[in-house]
Amino acid sequence: MTIDARRVIADLRELDRLTGGPDGARRVCWTKEWLRARELLRERLEDVGGVAVAQDEAGNLWATLPGDRDGTVAVGSHLDSVPNGGWLDGALGVMAALEVLRAAAADSHRHTAALVDFADEEGARFGRSLFGSSAVAGTLDTRAIEGLRDAEGGALGEVLAEHGVDLERTTAATARRESLIAYLELHIEQGPVLEGEGLPVAAVSGTFGVERYRFSFDGQASHAGTTPMDMRRDAGLAAAGTALAVEQIARRHEGVGTCGRVDLEPGIPTAVAGRADLLVDLRHAQGEPLAAMLAETRAEAARAAAGRGCSMSDSELWRIEPISFDGRLVTAALEAACTGRALPSGALHDAAEMARHLPAAMMFTSSTRGISHAKEEDTPEPDLERAIDAFGRLALRVLRGEVLG
Amino acid sequence: MTIDARRVIADLRELDRLTGGPDGARRVCWTKEWLRARELLRERLEDVGGVAVAQDEAGNLWATLPGDRDGTVAVGSHLDSVPNGGWLDGALGVMAALEVLRAAAADSHRHTAALVDFADEEGARFGRSLFGSSAVAGTLDTRAIEGLRDAEGGALGEVLAEHGVDLERTTAATARRESLIAYLELHIEQGPVLEGEGLPVAAVSGTFGVERYRFSFDGQASHAGTTPMDMRRDAGLAAAGTALAVEQIARRHEGVGTCGRVDLEPGIPTAVAGRADLLVDLRHAQGEPLAAMLAETRAEAARAAAGRGCSMSDSELWRIEPISFDGRLVTAALEAACTGRALPSGALHDAAEMARHLPAAMMFTSSTRGISHAKEEDTPEPDLERAIDAFGRLALRVLRGEVLG
Questions:
Q1: Would you call A264 and B262 a contact, using CB atoms and an 8 Å cutoff?
Q2: Minimal CA separation from A256 to chain B, in Å
Q3: pLDDT per residue as tens, chain A (405 positions)
Q4: Assigned domain for A404 exists
Q5: Same domain (yes/no): B116, B36
Q6: What's B369's DSSP letter?
């Protein structure tokens, strides 16, 4: 029995019919629609036969198909979506993993196969992304998140309890990784690179490191009509100059740099901004150029501030080191993809958390116009088929022990 | 009897004691504190003797002291303040006008003197500034403002009714200007120019014209991690480039140009901005350079947009032509100031509305560090004395018919 990519696409269409619609996917974690998605997954898993399904302490769903070799190879992603999300983000990897289990069920002399559907990868309701996978990786700090509330004021702990998850005990999910020898994930690229190169599928070499900072500029709020240009201390223009510098810095280092939010105070058209808060997100696949990008951004922000009589300070919002996937798995993914292309992932994925402790790798399929986290998210069906097929071949080789030895 | 500047300062201190405090002035129009301020003014006017006090259809307070020459010279400003405002903005002009009435009461062979305290110059509660003076000038469009509500949802019409003002009948206030032959106003500069030049008082030559526009940039929202720099259509950077261009344009034309607010969408640190709305406020004392500033801003915005694959559109938010005050009155104000300095006003004032129909002029006194609309607003007492004295001399000359003949 081999991989049937058309069956995976049919499962995805059915999932979309149940939990999507004209406004996009509605599978926000810890909601009824998310439970409905898992219900479909459980129904499909029952049909495979011989699969044991369980939810771990962090709400991750594990479906295990025993093998006759030691060790477990996990394949998966996440069923949860952002509000008005796309039909493929996360769901593709879970449904492809389901197909891997189907194919593995007919295969002998292999490791145990485990499908994992990680809980709350998106963090759409409470703002903490990679919830389930970081619990398994042991990087979830429950103290830091116990105070989180959703937009309606619902407390994280109470909402989790409704879903059979005790926030205090989520760290016990780390036990799940003890038997794991590899983690594999198929995902859409969520960017325009593969489409631009005309490639349906590629290996992923690792995930970008991220330095996310708030740069604050303090000048002097003053009247837009009465303050001559040469007597201004305009914090907003210092931020504007910094945003343009970030773009040049990112280009120079072949990374990415984004200023997606800026807040001016008092923030009215009739006042020079006395304060500006600029959020800067810098990413690079390698640590050294990433550090250089941050240092240069600091220097340019200080220069922009000084040039306008403003002061500048910065504070770290979030950071993660670049993560390289396992070399043997990346090579095998390249072989399976047959496109000779490996690219780093600019977005974060559950695989980045898993890669902290075990050999992990990902494959990407193309994203139409690079759009994701939106109802327009799509991938041409021929690309989906090629990618599901290639990912299935990779997973079956790893399950047979042909890659990691 | 002549002008007693110290009495004016004492009146201002008493007003501040009653309606100000550690958080600044609390005289927002159509509130109890504003009524308390008017109560103090009415008490002081009673002490003058021979003064008839009335509220017009737009809520403006008129205190009239009959003269023996035809025509009425109005002197005034506004008692209302922004929330947490300063003690001098508006109040200085009203209390100085009170002193003019005191001095005029002892004077014979003069025009009728009228103190006017315009209602809602600031527009702090409903967002429509110059309310009372524009009603008198006939430029208040009641249809356009009848739907306004305050932050608590209170309807403009209902709040006005509580203060004896029928929104439908405000236009009847235009009758007030029939007898007027001149309008004079003393105000703080609200900018740093006079302080910078070491001058306590100056004549005001007119008010800046204003072109206030929204520039909207449409690009493509995309993932901050997965979208390579050369595949972005970043609307936020187009806005940043435009803001920096506005600064250069304003400098080149010796006007002022401000970008005090920008809104990015989706407005999160992990997404390239697909849309940016930039509010641009351009001001100049002359119409021709102001028009050039707008044209150049449009061209630079279009260039910034095109350079990043964005589209650009602009829409007018508000505009007013530059207004020149009456030449004879400005000359007399220069003589009274004895500093040889006349400067245009970058801020709008009730005088700009009055100047549409009759000879008007203003005088400015210095503003410490140029700060206004804040509790820190201040003017050194010696400057206040010089300015009140100079303004009083100007007003008495105009009342005696020595300036307009």
A1: yes
A2: 6
A3: 689 999 999 999 999 999 999 999 999 999 999 999 999 999 999 999 999 999 999 999 999 999 999 999 999 999 999 999 999 999 999 999 999 999 999 988 899 999 999 999 999 999 888 999 999 999 999 998 999 999 899 999 999 999 999 999 999 999 999 999 999 999 999 999 999 999 999 999 999 999 999 999 999 999 999 999 999 999 999 999 999 999 999 999 999 999 999 999 999 898 999 999 999 999 999 999 999 999 999 999 999 999 999 999 999 988 999 999 999 999 999 999 999 999 999 999 999 999 999 999 999 999 999 999 889 999 999 999 999 999 999 999 999 999 997
A4: no
A5: yes
A6: G
Give tens-digit pLDDT for B52-72: 999 999 999 999 999 999 999
**Nearest residue of chain A to residue B377 (CA atoms):** A222
Q: Which residues of A touch B210 (CB under 8 A)?
A: 225
User: Which residues on A lie below 8 Å from B237 (Cβ)?
Assistant: 243-244, 247, 259
Query: In chain A, whose CA is at the least distance from the CA of B343?
Result: A226
Phi, psi values for residue B201, rounded to 5°: -155, 150
Residue A405 lies in a domain: no
A346 to B227: CB separation less than 8 angstroms, yes or no: yes
Q: Is the pLDDT of residue B1 over 80?
A: no
In this model, does residue B50 exceed pLDDT 90? yes
Question: A-chain residues within 8 Å CB-CB of B240?
Answer: 239-241, 243-244, 259
> % helix / strand / coil in chain A, to the nearest 5?
40, 25, 35
Residues in chain B: 405
Candidates B227, B229, B241; nearest CB to A370: B227
- Which one-letter DSSP state was computed for residue A374? S
Last residue of a domain, one of A290, A320, A350: A320
* A101/A134 same-domain check: yes
Q: How many domains would you assign to chain A?
A: 2
| Pair A118, A168 in one domain | yes
CB contact under 8 A, A270 and B262: no
A287-290: Cβ within 8 A, 24+ apart? A287/A209, A287/A321, A287/A322, A289/A253, A289/A254, A289/A255, A290/A208, A290/A209, A290/A211, A290/A253, A290/A255, A290/A322
In a domain, A33, yes or no: yes
pTM of the model: 0.89
Interface of A with B in 343-372 (CB under 8 A): 345-348, 370-372
Report CB contact under 8 Å: A223, B190.
Answer: yes
List the single best residue of B194, B226, B237, B275 to mutate versus A (max A Cβ within 10 A).
B226
Is the same domain home to B146 and B32? yes
Q: Where does A225-344 have alpha helices with state H?
A: 235-253, 287-306, 327-337
Q: What is the CATH number of the domain that holds A201?
A: 3.40.630.10
A228 and B191: CB-CB below 8 Å? Answer: yes
> What whole-number distance in Å separates Cα of residue B215 and Cα of residue B230?
24
Model ipTM value: 0.89
Q: pLDDT (tens digit, 9 = 90+) per residue, B374-398? A: 899 999 999 999 999 999 999 999 9
A269 touches chain B (CB under 8 A): yes
